[in-house]
Design brief:
By secondary structure, the chain is an alpha+beta fold. The chain folds into 2 domains: 6-84 and 225-245, Phosphorylase Kinase, domain 1 (2-Layer Sandwich), CATH 3.30.200.20; 85-206, ATP-grasp fold, B domain (D-amino Acid Aminotransferase, Chain A, domain 1, 2-Layer Sandwich). It contains 6 helices and 15 strands. Strands 8, 9, 10, 11, 12, 13 and 14 form a 7-stranded antiparallel sheet that branches. The protein has a 5-stranded antiparallel sheet with strand order 1-2-3-7-6, covered by helices on one side. Strands 4-5-15 form a 3-stranded antiparallel sheet, with no helix packed on it. Helix 1 packs parallel to helix 6. The longest helix is centred in the middle third of the chain and has 23 residues, at 145-167. The chain is globular, with a radius of gyration of 18 Å. The two termini are 31 Å apart.
């Protein structure tokens, strides 16, 4: 058996060389991290759930004409994706006050925002991913003004789709993060949605109870992270009611 060439390893995923030029294999790990890896545990089965949920969302984005890096799911933990040049920004779309926005502006969590807000954060773990403005993005050459426009347009379209998708299954989309990349086809380049969209990168609250169904269960030591992810998958129709992802509980990473 040939050993695959590892291209990159992040906190939650590993990228391997793909079977064809211009492709990569994205492997979802079971690592749960928060506060830029200062908090780190292994949650058996999390990677399987994120792979399935992200596949479901990216397939729908592709279907409605939102360009992404996703090609197809390969197995329970891996996807075949297009190789892209990642833009070093986390793009956060906020619909409801929560997390750092509530702390920064003194707004009670759960307060509906006057309109959806898009924020940019520079991807740099050693700096704790600082928030940046469009001026920073263009001044340091991370993206051009036209690329920023394309990124914001994609973010708004993704937000519209996700809001409706989750509302239909009784979930409130509080906020979410996406990453974007440049995909080259010969001399043509376009901005596409990359990385993943899962409960790891979204804040999802039950509409009736406001129970958290996302990574905040790990960040805030609420417990039941895997069960919450399973419930999201069940509501989206990805898992059957009696289906479970087996796990042995969280394991602390030293």
């Amino acid at each position: 058996m040939n050993r695959r060439r590892r291209i990159y390893e992040g906190k939650g995923k590993i990228l391997y060389e793909g079977p064809e030029p211009g492709t990569l294999v994205q492997h979802f790990k079971d690592d749960a991290t928060a506060f830029n890896n200062k908090k780190h545990e292994i949650i058996d089965g999390k990677g399987v759930l994120n792979n399935r949920i992200s596949e479901y969302i990216f397939e729908h984005l592709n279907t409605i004409g939102i360009p992404t890096h996703f090609i197809r799911r390969l197995n329970m933990r891996e996807q075949l994706i297009r190789e892209v040049e990642i833009i070093p920004l986390e793009v956060v779309v906020r619909n409801v006050a929560a997390g750092s926005l509530s702390k920064r502006l003194g707004i009670d969590e759960g307060t509906a925002l006057p309109r959806s807000i898009i924020e940019f954060y520079y991807k740099a773990d050693e700096l704790d991913d600082p928030m940046v403005s469009e001026e920073h993005v263009t001044a340091f050459g991370w993206a051009t003004p036209q690329e920023i426009d394309d990124i914001m347009s994609l973010a708004i379209r993704v937000n519209d789709f996700l809001t409706g998708l989750f509302l239909g299954v009784g979930i409130r989309l509080v906020d979410f993060k996406i990453e974007c990349g440049r995909h080259w086809e010969n001399e043509m380049m376009r901005i596409v949605v990359a990385d993943e969209i899962s409960p790891d990168s979204c804040r999802l609250w039950d509409i009736e109870t406001n129970d958290k169904m996302d990574k905040d269960r790990f960040r805030r030591d609420l417990g039941g992270m895997l069960e919450a992810y399973q419930e999201v998958a069940r509501r989206l129709g990805i898992m059957n009611e009696n289906e479970t992802v087996t796990h042995s509980g969280p394991r602390l990473v030293q």
